[in-house]
């Protein structure tokens, strides 16, 4: 193949045509993989390179359709990827701010308490509950262990999503907290639970108090927590 005075290949030639065709085909093939961000980016880049290198080629060649299709599919894939990431972030933010607490009640707080993480426990509360002393938390942990056993999980008994409207705080009944009173693998006990929650300025829901109810008495944290409004769930 002849070269110009600068040692570069001519704008069009067998080698250049083959390269452009392969890039166009690669662009189309990569663009069909919409679920892979890397493939979408490769489709967009390779399609643009093919169109640039073959810009002096006659119109109507098949590789042009492949390249343009690859570019468009690459753009669609990138838009879908960005949109999916934004939706996931929005969903995670909503879960962290509201849905998690409405779904599981005091689950994260009790888990942190039993794992020896007082900071994680206090972060779940607003008001007096967020200011409990280490001795109060230790006493709560020992009382829970002696009366109910080892904490397992907590969630609301309703199959429908719990929602709160208007201004808080809100009291929500219907949570079920599971404990393991004996050895691991043995039967578990389910204790009814009511929670009171409020919304921070950031929009995040936090516990005000929770109350575990038994036939022979109840246990609440903080100790002065009371149900002053009607349950919403």
Short description:
The chain has six helices and five strands; from the N terminus they run ααααααβββββ.
List its traits.
alpha+beta; Nuclear Transport Factor 2, Chain: A; 2 domains; 6 helices
Largest sheet: 5 strands, antiparallel
Q: Stretches where pLDDT falls below 50 for ≥5 residues?
A: 1-7, 229-233
Which outline best applies?
elongated
Distance between the termini: 80 Å
C-alpha Rg (nearest Å): 31 Å
Per CATH, the architecture of the largest domain is: Roll
- The overall number of domains is 2
Mean of all residue-level pLDDT scores? 84
Q: What structural class is derived from the secondary structure elements?
A: alpha+beta
- Write the CATH fold name of the largest domain: Nuclear Transport Factor 2, Chain: A
Would you give an account of this structure?
There is one protein chain. This protein has helices at 14-31, 37-53, 62-104, 107-114, 118-122, 134-147, and strands at 150-156, 170-180, 189-199, 205-214, 217-221. α1 packs antiparallel against α2 (37-53) and α1 runs parallel beside α3 (62-104). The chain is an alpha+beta fold. 45% of the residues lie in helices and 19% in strands. Strands 1-2-3-4-5 form a 5-stranded antiparallel sheet. The longest helix has 43 residues, at 62-104. Residues 1-7 and 229-233 have low confidence and may be disordered. It is elongated.
């Amino acid at each position: 193949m002849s070269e110009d005075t600068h040692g570069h290949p001519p704008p069009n030639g067998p080698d250049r045509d083959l390269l452009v065709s392969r890039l166009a085909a690669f662009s189309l093939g990569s663009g069909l993989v919409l679920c892979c961000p890397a493939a979408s980016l490769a489709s967009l880049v390779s399609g643009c390179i093919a169109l640039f290198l073959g810009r002096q080629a006659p119109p109507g060649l098949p590789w042009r359709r492949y390249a343009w299709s690859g570019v468009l599919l690459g753009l669609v894939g990138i838009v879908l990827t960005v949109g999916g990431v934004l939706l996931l972030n929005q969903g995670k933010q909503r879960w962290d701010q509201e849905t998690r607490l409405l779904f599981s009640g005091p689950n994260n707080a009790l888990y942190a308490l039993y794992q020896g993480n007082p900071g994680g426990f206090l972060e779940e509360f607003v008001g007096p509950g967020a200011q409990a002393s280490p001795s109060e938390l230790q006493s709560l942990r020992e009382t829970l262990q002696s009366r109910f056993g080892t904490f397992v999980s907590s969630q609301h008994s309703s199959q429908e999503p719990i929602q709160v409207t208007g201004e808080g705080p809100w009291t929500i009944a219907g949570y079920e907290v599971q404990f393991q009173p004996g050895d691991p693998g043995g039967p578990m006990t389910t204790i009814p639970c009511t929670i009171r929650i409020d919304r921070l300025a950031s929009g995040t829901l936090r516990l005000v108090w929770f109350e575990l109810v038994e036939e022979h008495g109840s246990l609440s944290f903080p100790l002065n927590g009371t149900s002053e409004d009607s349950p919403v769930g």
